[in-house]
Design a protein that fits this description.
disordered C terminus, Rossmann fold, alpha/beta, elongated, 402 residues
Protein backbone atom coordinates (compact mmCIF):
# COMPACT_ATOMS: atom_id res chain seq x y z
CA UNK A 1 0.00 0.00 0.00
CA UNK A 2 1.41 3.39 -1.00
CA UNK A 3 0.19 6.94 -0.38
CA UNK A 4 -1.48 8.70 -3.31
CA UNK A 5 1.03 10.11 -5.76
CA UNK A 6 -1.11 12.60 -7.63
CA UNK A 7 1.01 15.73 -7.81
CA UNK A 8 -0.38 19.22 -8.20
CA UNK A 9 -0.70 20.68 -11.66
CA UNK A 10 2.37 22.63 -12.71
CA UNK A 11 1.93 26.37 -12.40
CA UNK A 12 4.16 28.75 -14.32
CA UNK A 13 5.73 31.50 -12.23
CA UNK A 14 3.78 34.17 -14.12
CA UNK A 15 0.54 32.59 -12.93
CA UNK A 16 1.33 33.03 -9.23
CA UNK A 17 -0.76 35.63 -7.46
CA UNK A 18 0.83 38.64 -5.71
CA UNK A 19 0.55 37.09 -2.24
CA UNK A 20 2.37 33.92 -3.33
CA UNK A 21 5.06 35.95 -5.11
CA UNK A 22 5.50 38.09 -2.00
CA UNK A 23 5.87 35.02 0.20
CA UNK A 24 8.46 33.62 -2.20
CA UNK A 25 10.35 36.89 -1.86
CA UNK A 26 10.12 36.77 1.93
CA UNK A 27 11.89 33.40 2.01
CA UNK A 28 14.97 35.46 1.04
CA UNK A 29 14.26 38.12 3.65
CA UNK A 30 13.19 36.24 6.81
CA UNK A 31 15.15 33.42 8.39
CA UNK A 32 13.18 30.23 9.15
CA UNK A 33 11.15 30.50 12.34
CA UNK A 34 11.31 34.32 12.52
CA UNK A 35 8.39 35.09 14.85
CA UNK A 36 8.56 38.83 14.25
CA UNK A 37 8.04 38.16 10.56
CA UNK A 38 5.21 35.78 11.38
CA UNK A 39 3.40 38.48 13.32
CA UNK A 40 3.92 40.96 10.49
CA UNK A 41 2.48 38.47 8.01
CA UNK A 42 -0.56 37.96 10.19
CA UNK A 43 -1.14 41.72 10.42
CA UNK A 44 -0.21 43.03 6.97
CA UNK A 45 -0.13 39.98 4.67
CA UNK A 46 2.92 39.03 2.61
CA UNK A 47 2.37 41.65 -0.08
CA UNK A 48 1.91 44.29 2.60
CA UNK A 49 5.12 43.31 4.41
CA UNK A 50 7.11 43.46 1.17
CA UNK A 51 5.59 46.83 0.32
CA UNK A 52 6.62 48.21 3.73
CA UNK A 53 10.15 46.77 3.39
CA UNK A 54 10.74 48.09 -0.11
CA UNK A 55 8.91 51.41 0.25
CA UNK A 56 10.02 54.64 1.95
CA UNK A 57 12.03 54.03 5.10
CA UNK A 58 9.55 55.97 7.20
CA UNK A 59 6.76 53.53 6.29
CA UNK A 60 8.77 50.49 7.41
CA UNK A 61 8.49 51.80 10.96
CA UNK A 62 5.10 50.06 11.04
CA UNK A 63 7.06 46.79 11.28
CA UNK A 64 7.62 46.94 15.01
CA UNK A 65 9.38 44.61 17.43
CA UNK A 66 12.94 44.67 16.06
CA UNK A 67 15.84 47.07 16.34
CA UNK A 68 16.58 49.55 13.59
CA UNK A 69 19.76 47.68 12.55
CA UNK A 70 17.86 44.45 12.08
CA UNK A 71 15.07 46.16 10.18
CA UNK A 72 17.69 47.75 7.93
CA UNK A 73 19.03 44.26 7.19
CA UNK A 74 15.53 43.11 6.24
CA UNK A 75 15.22 46.07 3.89
CA UNK A 76 18.53 45.29 2.18
CA UNK A 77 17.49 41.69 1.66
CA UNK A 78 14.07 42.72 0.36
CA UNK A 79 15.65 45.08 -2.15
CA UNK A 80 17.76 42.26 -3.56
CA UNK A 81 15.00 39.63 -3.64
CA UNK A 82 13.87 38.51 -7.10
CA UNK A 83 10.98 36.10 -6.41
CA UNK A 84 9.97 35.57 -10.03
CA UNK A 85 13.52 34.52 -10.84
CA UNK A 86 13.47 32.09 -7.88
CA UNK A 87 10.09 30.69 -8.96
CA UNK A 88 11.40 30.24 -12.50
CA UNK A 89 14.55 28.50 -11.23
CA UNK A 90 12.44 26.15 -9.13
CA UNK A 91 10.11 25.35 -12.01
CA UNK A 92 13.06 24.76 -14.31
CA UNK A 93 14.38 22.02 -12.04
CA UNK A 94 10.94 20.43 -11.59
CA UNK A 95 10.21 22.23 -8.34
CA UNK A 96 7.48 24.49 -7.02
CA UNK A 97 6.58 26.78 -4.14
CA UNK A 98 3.66 26.22 -1.76
CA UNK A 99 2.49 28.49 1.04
CA UNK A 100 -0.51 29.11 3.31
CA UNK A 101 -3.58 29.63 1.16
CA UNK A 102 -2.48 27.27 -1.63
CA UNK A 103 -4.14 23.90 -2.11
CA UNK A 104 -1.02 21.88 -1.32
CA UNK A 105 -0.22 23.58 1.99
CA UNK A 106 -0.27 21.11 4.97
CA UNK A 107 -2.42 22.92 7.53
CA UNK A 108 -0.77 21.11 10.47
CA UNK A 109 2.19 23.45 9.95
CA UNK A 110 -0.09 26.25 11.14
CA UNK A 111 0.30 24.77 14.64
CA UNK A 112 3.69 26.50 14.72
CA UNK A 113 1.91 29.83 15.06
CA UNK A 114 4.10 32.85 14.35
CA UNK A 115 7.03 30.49 13.69
CA UNK A 116 5.33 28.61 10.84
CA UNK A 117 7.18 28.63 7.52
CA UNK A 118 6.57 31.56 5.19
CA UNK A 119 6.32 28.88 2.51
CA UNK A 120 8.01 25.70 1.33
CA UNK A 121 10.05 24.99 -1.78
CA UNK A 122 9.49 21.46 -3.13
CA UNK A 123 11.05 18.95 -5.52
CA UNK A 124 9.12 15.84 -6.45
CA UNK A 125 5.73 14.90 -7.83
CA UNK A 126 3.53 13.81 -4.90
CA UNK A 127 1.13 16.19 -3.18
CA UNK A 128 2.65 17.35 0.10
CA UNK A 129 -0.65 17.94 1.88
CA UNK A 130 -1.88 14.42 1.09
CA UNK A 131 1.40 12.80 2.11
CA UNK A 132 1.67 14.70 5.36
CA UNK A 133 -1.67 13.32 6.56
CA UNK A 134 -0.11 9.87 6.97
CA UNK A 135 3.51 10.51 7.84
CA UNK A 136 5.96 9.67 10.63
CA UNK A 137 9.34 11.26 11.35
CA UNK A 138 12.27 8.91 11.96
CA UNK A 139 15.32 10.80 13.24
CA UNK A 140 18.48 10.18 15.22
CA UNK A 141 22.23 10.48 15.53
CA UNK A 142 24.51 11.22 12.59
CA UNK A 143 27.35 9.10 13.99
CA UNK A 144 25.07 6.14 14.63
CA UNK A 145 25.99 2.55 15.49
CA UNK A 146 25.29 -0.43 13.20
CA UNK A 147 22.45 -1.32 15.57
CA UNK A 148 20.92 2.14 15.14
CA UNK A 149 21.22 2.06 11.36
CA UNK A 150 19.62 -1.39 11.26
CA UNK A 151 16.71 -0.32 13.49
CA UNK A 152 16.10 2.86 11.50
CA UNK A 153 16.15 1.04 8.18
CA UNK A 154 13.86 -1.81 9.24
CA UNK A 155 11.49 0.55 11.07
CA UNK A 156 11.22 2.83 8.02
CA UNK A 157 10.75 -0.13 5.68
CA UNK A 158 7.95 -1.47 7.86
CA UNK A 159 6.22 1.91 7.96
CA UNK A 160 6.55 2.41 4.21
CA UNK A 161 5.22 -1.08 3.45
CA UNK A 162 2.08 -0.20 5.43
CA UNK A 163 1.48 2.98 3.46
CA UNK A 164 3.12 5.53 5.75
CA UNK A 165 5.41 8.31 4.54
CA UNK A 166 8.78 8.32 6.30
CA UNK A 167 10.01 11.88 6.91
CA UNK A 168 13.57 12.70 7.94
CA UNK A 169 16.34 15.24 7.40
CA UNK A 170 18.62 13.48 4.85
CA UNK A 171 21.62 13.73 7.19
CA UNK A 172 24.22 11.01 7.60
CA UNK A 173 23.46 8.22 10.06
CA UNK A 174 19.89 7.52 11.17
CA UNK A 175 18.27 9.94 8.71
CA UNK A 176 19.94 8.35 5.70
CA UNK A 177 19.16 4.83 6.95
CA UNK A 178 15.48 5.76 7.36
CA UNK A 179 15.23 7.17 3.82
CA UNK A 180 17.00 4.12 2.38
CA UNK A 181 14.74 1.73 4.26
CA UNK A 182 11.62 3.38 2.84
CA UNK A 183 13.05 3.46 -0.69
CA UNK A 184 14.21 -0.15 -0.54
CA UNK A 185 10.68 -1.29 0.29
CA UNK A 186 9.24 0.67 -2.62
CA UNK A 187 7.58 3.08 -0.21
CA UNK A 188 7.31 6.82 0.26
CA UNK A 189 9.81 9.15 1.90
CA UNK A 190 10.29 12.91 2.20
CA UNK A 191 13.45 14.81 3.12
CA UNK A 192 13.25 18.18 4.88
CA UNK A 193 16.40 20.22 4.19
CA UNK A 194 18.04 23.22 5.87
CA UNK A 195 19.13 24.60 2.48
CA UNK A 196 17.80 25.05 -1.03
CA UNK A 197 16.07 21.92 -2.27
CA UNK A 198 18.39 21.64 -5.29
CA UNK A 199 21.52 21.87 -3.10
CA UNK A 200 23.04 18.45 -2.41
CA UNK A 201 23.81 18.60 1.28
CA UNK A 202 25.47 16.63 2.66
CA UNK A 203 27.41 16.16 -0.55
CA UNK A 204 27.77 12.44 0.08
CA UNK A 205 23.98 12.10 -0.10
CA UNK A 206 23.63 13.65 -3.55
CA UNK A 207 22.60 10.32 -5.03
CA UNK A 208 20.18 9.60 -2.19
CA UNK A 209 18.56 13.03 -2.51
CA UNK A 210 18.16 12.43 -6.24
CA UNK A 211 16.39 9.14 -5.56
CA UNK A 212 14.11 10.78 -2.99
CA UNK A 213 13.20 13.59 -5.39
CA UNK A 214 12.57 11.03 -8.14
CA UNK A 215 9.92 9.07 -6.25
CA UNK A 216 9.14 11.19 -3.20
CA UNK A 217 9.61 14.74 -1.97
CA UNK A 218 12.50 17.02 -1.04
CA UNK A 219 11.37 20.20 0.71
CA UNK A 220 12.68 23.15 2.66
CA UNK A 221 12.05 26.75 3.63
CA UNK A 222 15.09 28.25 1.91
CA UNK A 223 14.95 29.56 -1.69
CA UNK A 224 17.07 28.15 -4.53
CA UNK A 225 20.82 28.19 -3.96
CA UNK A 226 20.64 28.74 -0.17
CA UNK A 227 23.22 26.96 1.95
CA UNK A 228 22.76 25.49 5.44
CA UNK A 229 23.89 27.01 8.73
CA UNK A 230 23.82 25.50 12.24
CA UNK A 231 20.78 27.57 13.25
CA UNK A 232 18.92 26.53 10.10
CA UNK A 233 19.44 22.86 10.96
CA UNK A 234 17.91 23.39 14.39
CA UNK A 235 14.93 25.33 13.01
CA UNK A 236 14.42 22.77 10.23
CA UNK A 237 13.55 20.27 12.96
CA UNK A 238 10.38 22.14 13.91
CA UNK A 239 9.06 21.54 10.37
CA UNK A 240 9.76 17.81 10.61
CA UNK A 241 7.92 17.65 13.95
CA UNK A 242 4.91 19.72 12.85
CA UNK A 243 4.51 18.04 9.47
CA UNK A 244 4.16 14.49 10.85
CA UNK A 245 1.79 12.55 13.11
CA UNK A 246 4.62 11.53 15.42
CA UNK A 247 8.41 11.45 15.82
CA UNK A 248 10.51 8.35 16.47
CA UNK A 249 14.05 8.87 17.81
CA UNK A 250 16.21 5.83 17.11
CA UNK A 251 19.59 6.82 18.56
CA UNK A 252 20.56 10.09 20.23
CA UNK A 253 23.17 11.26 22.70
CA UNK A 254 22.21 13.81 25.33
CA UNK A 255 23.05 16.77 23.05
CA UNK A 256 21.72 15.30 19.80
CA UNK A 257 19.80 17.59 17.46
CA UNK A 258 17.18 14.88 17.04
CA UNK A 259 16.11 15.54 20.63
CA UNK A 260 15.19 19.05 19.46
CA UNK A 261 12.79 17.46 16.98
CA UNK A 262 11.32 15.35 19.78
CA UNK A 263 10.92 18.42 21.97
CA UNK A 264 9.13 20.31 19.18
CA UNK A 265 6.86 17.29 18.61
CA UNK A 266 5.95 17.12 22.29
CA UNK A 267 5.23 20.86 22.47
CA UNK A 268 3.00 20.59 19.39
CA UNK A 269 1.01 17.73 20.88
CA UNK A 270 2.45 15.14 18.50
CA UNK A 271 3.39 11.65 19.65
CA UNK A 272 7.01 11.19 20.70
CA UNK A 273 8.51 7.71 20.53
CA UNK A 274 11.92 6.19 21.17
CA UNK A 275 13.73 2.98 20.24
CA UNK A 276 15.74 1.71 23.23
CA UNK A 277 19.36 0.67 22.91
CA UNK A 278 22.06 -0.76 25.18
CA UNK A 279 22.16 0.95 28.58
CA UNK A 280 25.94 1.23 28.16
CA UNK A 281 25.71 3.12 24.85
CA UNK A 282 26.15 6.89 24.97
CA UNK A 283 24.28 7.09 21.67
CA UNK A 284 21.18 5.71 23.36
CA UNK A 285 21.38 7.87 26.49
CA UNK A 286 19.29 10.68 25.00
CA UNK A 287 16.60 8.26 23.87
CA UNK A 288 16.48 6.65 27.30
CA UNK A 289 16.03 10.06 28.88
CA UNK A 290 13.08 10.65 26.55
CA UNK A 291 11.62 7.29 27.55
CA UNK A 292 11.85 8.23 31.22
CA UNK A 293 9.62 11.20 30.39
CA UNK A 294 6.64 11.36 28.05
CA UNK A 295 8.01 9.36 25.10
CA UNK A 296 6.64 5.89 24.36
CA UNK A 297 8.92 2.90 23.80
CA UNK A 298 8.59 1.29 20.36
CA UNK A 299 10.54 -1.55 18.76
CA UNK A 300 8.99 -1.97 15.32
CA UNK A 301 6.69 -0.37 12.77
CA UNK A 302 3.56 -2.10 14.08
CA UNK A 303 4.00 -0.48 17.49
CA UNK A 304 4.49 2.95 15.89
CA UNK A 305 1.36 2.58 13.76
CA UNK A 306 -0.67 1.49 16.79
CA UNK A 307 0.14 4.89 18.32
CA UNK A 308 -0.19 7.20 15.30
CA UNK A 309 -2.64 5.26 13.13
CA UNK A 310 -6.39 5.01 13.03
CA UNK A 311 -8.56 3.14 15.50
CA UNK A 312 -8.08 -0.61 15.15
CA UNK A 313 -4.54 -0.48 13.74
CA UNK A 314 -3.17 -2.52 16.61
CA UNK A 315 0.21 -4.18 16.99
CA UNK A 316 0.07 -7.97 17.47
CA UNK A 317 -0.07 -9.16 21.06
CA UNK A 318 3.42 -10.01 22.33
CA UNK A 319 3.64 -13.20 24.40
CA UNK A 320 5.72 -16.32 24.68
CA UNK A 321 4.71 -19.71 23.25
CA UNK A 322 1.64 -21.39 24.73
CA UNK A 323 2.56 -24.69 26.39
CA UNK A 324 0.12 -27.55 26.70
CA UNK A 325 0.18 -27.34 30.50
CA UNK A 326 -0.94 -23.67 30.25
CA UNK A 327 -4.33 -24.97 29.07
CA UNK A 328 -4.97 -27.24 32.05
CA UNK A 329 -7.69 -26.47 34.59
CA UNK A 330 -6.30 -25.13 37.90
CA UNK A 331 -7.07 -28.31 39.89
CA UNK A 332 -5.37 -30.52 37.27
CA UNK A 333 -2.37 -28.19 37.08
CA UNK A 334 -2.03 -28.32 40.89
CA UNK A 335 -1.88 -32.13 40.82
CA UNK A 336 0.66 -32.06 37.99
CA UNK A 337 2.86 -29.67 39.96
CA UNK A 338 2.70 -31.95 43.00
CA UNK A 339 4.45 -34.86 41.20
CA UNK A 340 8.18 -35.16 41.96
CA UNK A 341 10.46 -34.75 38.96
CA UNK A 342 12.68 -37.82 39.16
CA UNK A 343 10.64 -40.72 40.54
CA UNK A 344 7.15 -42.26 40.76
CA UNK A 345 4.90 -41.18 43.65
CA UNK A 346 1.88 -42.83 45.32
CA UNK A 347 -1.48 -40.99 45.09
CA UNK A 348 -1.42 -40.48 48.88
CA UNK A 349 1.91 -38.62 48.63
CA UNK A 350 0.64 -36.56 45.68
CA UNK A 351 -2.56 -35.80 47.60
CA UNK A 352 -0.56 -34.45 50.52
CA UNK A 353 1.57 -32.24 48.28
CA UNK A 354 -1.42 -30.98 46.28
CA UNK A 355 -3.56 -30.30 49.35
CA UNK A 356 -6.57 -32.24 48.08
CA UNK A 357 -8.23 -35.64 48.58
CA UNK A 358 -6.80 -38.91 47.30
CA UNK A 359 -9.88 -39.70 45.21
CA UNK A 360 -9.69 -36.26 43.60
CA UNK A 361 -5.98 -36.83 42.86
CA UNK A 362 -6.60 -40.20 41.23
CA UNK A 363 -9.27 -38.71 38.97
CA UNK A 364 -6.96 -35.91 37.93
CA UNK A 365 -4.05 -38.35 37.34
CA UNK A 366 -6.12 -40.38 34.88
CA UNK A 367 -7.07 -37.15 33.11
CA UNK A 368 -3.39 -36.12 32.95
CA UNK A 369 -2.51 -39.59 31.70
CA UNK A 370 -4.98 -39.26 28.81
CA UNK A 371 -3.37 -35.95 27.89
CA UNK A 372 0.15 -37.37 27.91
CA UNK A 373 1.53 -35.58 30.99
CA UNK A 374 1.93 -38.59 33.36
CA UNK A 375 2.30 -42.35 33.18
CA UNK A 376 1.62 -45.14 35.68
CA UNK A 377 4.43 -47.18 37.24
CA UNK A 378 2.91 -49.99 39.36
CA UNK A 379 1.07 -48.33 42.25
CA UNK A 380 2.76 -44.99 41.54
CA UNK A 381 2.61 -42.22 39.00
CA UNK A 382 5.39 -40.23 37.39
CA UNK A 383 5.88 -37.46 34.85
CA UNK A 384 6.40 -38.50 31.24
CA UNK A 385 9.71 -37.82 29.54
CA UNK A 386 8.24 -34.87 27.63
CA UNK A 387 6.83 -33.28 30.77
CA UNK A 388 10.10 -33.74 32.69
CA UNK A 389 12.07 -32.16 29.85
CA UNK A 390 9.82 -29.11 29.78
CA UNK A 391 9.42 -29.38 26.00
CA UNK A 392 6.80 -27.32 24.20
CA UNK A 393 5.64 -30.39 22.28
CA UNK A 394 4.09 -32.50 25.02
CA UNK A 395 2.33 -35.80 24.49
CA UNK A 396 -0.95 -33.91 24.66
CA UNK A 397 -0.14 -31.63 21.76
CA UNK A 398 1.25 -34.49 19.67
CA UNK A 399 -1.98 -36.45 20.12
CA UNK A 400 -4.19 -33.45 19.52
CA UNK A 401 -5.18 -33.06 23.18
CA UNK A 402 -6.01 -29.74 24.71
Amino acid sequence: MSPPEHGPSEQAPSEHGPEVVARAALTRVLEPGDEHGGRWLERFGAAGVMRLLTGPEAESGALSGVRAERLAGYRRRAALADPRRDLALAAGSGGRFVCPGTAEWPTQLDDLGDARPVGLWLRGGPDLRTWALRSVAVVGARACTPYGAHMAQTLAAGLAERGWVVVSGAAYGIDGAAHRGALASGGATAAVLACGVEVAYPRGHAGLLGRIAGSGLVLGELPPGSHPTPSRFVLRNRVIAALTRGTVVVEAAHRSGSLVTARYARELGRLTMGVPGPATSGLSSGVHELLRGEAVLVSDAAEVIELVGDMGELAPERRGPVLARDLLRPDSARVLEALPAGRPAHPDEISLAAGTGTDEVIGRLYELHSLGFVERQGDGWQLTRYTRGGEVESGATRRGGR
